[in-house]
Each structure stands twice: as structure tokens, then as C-alpha cells.
Amino acid sequence: MPELPEVESLSRFLGERLVGRSVARVYPVSIHALKTYDPPVSALEGRAFDEVRRHGKFLDLRVGGLHLVMHLARAGWVRWSDRLPEAPPRPGKGPLALRVRLGEPDDGAGFEVTEAGTQKHLAVYVVRDPLEVPGIARLGPDPLSADFTAEAFAGLLAGEGRQIKGVLRDQSVIAGIGNAYSDEILHAARMSPFKLAAKLSGEEVARLYEAIGTTLAAAVERSQGLALKDLKAEKKSGLRVHGRKGEACPVCGDTIREVSFSDSSMQYCPTCQTGGKVLADRRMSRLLK
């Protein structure tokens, strides 16, 4: 799933190529992905891109007063092409969900939004204000913004009775962190994913705050200048524990372990994070709360 660093890189990549260029045609190939109908996607045609930005994991392309907003979900992605196919795409069972072709003098260039797999959760909106998108309206603070201070972070955790792994992934608490980077942040902070947020000491809160900033900033830095096709591979290569079950921890050499849930899993290092204890492979483990 694309998270904050990848969506930030996507927004920068597209911003460099789209701002000032006009939309010739928009093809909504997968109707299930389109979550709005007023304005219609055809309202984007003939308008120029003004800005590309990010809200948490949402991409926001401002087009002549309207906003083309996308949430790529678990398996969505954006593909840029200097020469899109001439023939209009046909709706079908393939991965293509949306195609945007640029107008003159850039006729033929543009991008496609795709979604792999059978579970379709990609979401595309055309709105007048990005706050009309429910997921954006309920976002918490952005961890890369100047307003995300250590004091503000401590306030978010005060009275929070959930495990810290779930808190980090809650978009209404902090925007943009998902399963992968929450694993990475907790490893960098040397913290059990099952610790209760409200019971963290002041030193632990400070350590976690620093890990959030350094982990996300480093991931964004690694992605700068990469082509869109290389961003996924870069993310995977840069992860130290997530997706690396059975491998050696790069910090201490212990074996990276996994806790599996119904639809996801998390990875951690027992030596670095849980005092050497192996967490029970079930959601309600009470180790190291």
C-alpha cells in the first residue's frame, strides 16, 4: 500500500510534469472507483493543472478550480506515459481504472491509474473542495508538517487506550502512516507494537516522535528523483523489518518475527523491541503492555 513517502514522491513527480498543462480527455475506465458524480469527470477537460499536493495518503490534483483526488488503497498506482495509446480504453476486468490524456501541445502524454488484484478499493473523486472527501475531512495532523511538534504528538497520545501500533495507523490521529512504516517507526524507536499509547513514559514518547520524523523523512529522501515505476521497489529495499520475516535484524542480528491478523501482518525484532520475548501471534496478545 502506498503510504506517506510514496504518495509524497508521486505528488512531486506529477507536479513537475502536470502544472501548467491542460487536460484533453479523462477516461473513467473502472466506474466502481469513481466515488462522485457532480462535477462529472468530464468537467476536468479543457482545464489546466494548477497544483499537485498530498493529504495523508490522498493525492490531490487541482485542475482549474476543481480537484481530482485519489486514494490508491492497497494495490493502486499511477503510471506516467509520454505517449499514451491512441485508442480509447475499454472497460473490462483489467487493472486500468482511469486514464488522463493531456492536450496540445502535449497531446499524447498523460497518466493512468491502475489497481492490481481482485479486491477493488481504489477511490477517485472530483470535487470543488478536497474537504468534501470524507477521508480527507477526518485526517489528523501531517507528521511532516511544522505543526507536528513533540508537544502536539504527546497530546495526541494522552488518554489513548489503544496499542501504539493501531494508534500510528489511525489516519484520524496521524495522517499518512500505514502498516509498513508503523513497523519501521516502532523498530527505530525500540518499542513493542502492543504497548498501550497512554502508558508510554515521557522518554518513550520523545523517542517515538523522533523515530516518526527520521523514518518518514529518510524514506521521502530516498525516493526523490526516482521514476514512478521504481518507487515500489525502493520502498521495499529501504524497509528494515516490515516484510522481512525470518531475516536477520540489521541492528542486532536477531530473527525478525511476525504477528498475523485476518487481513494483514506486522513484523518486529524481539531483541530490539520486546526485551527478547516473542509476541503471541494473535491480535489480543498482552505481552509487554
UniProtKB/TrEMBL annotation:
Stretches of the chain forming a coiled coil according to its record: none
Q: Which keywords describe this protein according to UniProt?
A: DNA damage, DNA repair, DNA-binding, Glycosidase, Hydrolase, Lyase, Metal-binding, Multifunctional enzyme, Zinc, Zinc-finger
Cofactor(s) the protein requires to work: Zn(2+)
Domain FPG-type, residue spans: 240-274
What CDD domains does its record include?
BaFpgNei_N_1
What reaction(s) does this enzyme catalyze? Hydrolysis of DNA containing ring-opened 7-methylguanine residues, releasing 2,6-diamino-4-hydroxy-5-(N-methyl)formamidopyrimidine
MF terms from GO for this chain are:
8-oxo-7,8-dihydroguanine DNA N-glycosylase activity; damaged DNA binding; DNA-(apurinic or apyrimidinic site) endonuclease activity; lyase activity; zinc ion binding
Q: Is-annotated flag, keyword Lipid metabolism?
A: no
Q: Mind telling me which Pfam families this protein's record contains?
A: Fapy_DNA_glyco, H2TH, zf-FPG_IleRS
Q: Would the keyword DNA-binding be found if you checked this record's keyword annotation? A: yes
Give the InterPro entries listed for this entry: FPG_cat, FPG_N, H2TH_FPG, Ribosomal_uS13-like_H2TH, Znf_DNA_glyclase/AP_lyase, Znf_FPG/IleRS
Q: Which GO terms describe its biological process?
A: base-excision repair
Q: Where is each Formamidopyrimidine-DNA glycosylase catalytic domain found?
A: 2-93
Regarding protein family, the annotation reads: Belongs to the FPG family.
According to UniProt, the name of this protein is Formamidopyrimidine-DNA glycosylase
Species assigned in the record: Streptomyces caniferus
